[in-house]
Specification:
With 173 residues, the chain is α+β, with helices and mostly antiparallel strands. It has helices at residues 15-23, 25-32, 43-58, 63-66, 110-123, 140-148, 166-172, and strands at residues 2-4, 8-12, 35-36, 68-73, 78-85, 94-101, 130-135, 152-157, 159-165. Helices cover 39% and strands 29% of the residues.
């Protein structure tokens, strides 16, 4: 599955491609015809990707809710970042959005563009009523991304939790 924005192609990775991302990046770059310049595959991030890979392989009918999407710049096929929905919609219809960019691509609006596309797609799916996201208190760039996308601060529990509903999405444009 692919979502297209003004500057990006958001490419959903299969379970097998998630495995290549962690174990054989050159093979994945060849398969997707791209260069990878996004966040490095190390430490906690590797653990997250591996966990999502296991979920994706175990529940292939819900790949869109478990896997990562590469944010590929259309002009030169460079992967500038990635994003994911962390799980299937919960009993209230909420899905959680996570994302990250390569350091050289921060501050250029790529993540706002990608988050808007992913949230718009998610909110158009049956049973999805909202998208939530978590940020650290001191992560102002991520908070600005969420605000620009129409998210509203919902609660503070050590970290900040944000929510975008259908109504807020329509208002934010």
């Amino acid at each position: 599955m692919t979502l297209i924005t003004e500057r990006l192609e958001l490419q959903l990775l299969s379970g097998e491609q998630l495995g290549l991302w962690t174990e054989d990046l050159p093979a994945l770059k060849w398969e997707l015809d791209c260069a990878y310049c996004a966040e490095p595959m190390e430490d906690g991030f590797r653990t997250i990707v591996e966990g999502q890979g296991k979920k994706t392989l175990a529940d292939p009918q819900n790949t869109v809710w478990h896997s990562f999407w590469f944010l590929i710049r259309r002009s030169d096929r460079i992967v500038v970042g990635s994003a994911d929905f962390k799980n299937v919609p919960d009993e209230d219809g909420a899905v959680e959005l996570g994302y990250g960019l390569g350091k050289n691509y921060e501050g250029r609006g790529y993540m706002t563009e990608a988050a808007r596309a992913m949230c718009g797609w998610a909110l158009s799916q049956p049973g999805v009523t909202s998208v939530v996201a978590e940020t650290k208190r001191d992560n102002r760039p991520s908070q600005r991304i969420l605000s620009r996308c129409g998210f509203r601060l919902e609660r503070e529990e050590g970290t900040l939790w944000w929510r975008l509903t259908e109504l807020e999405k329509e208002i934010s444009g």
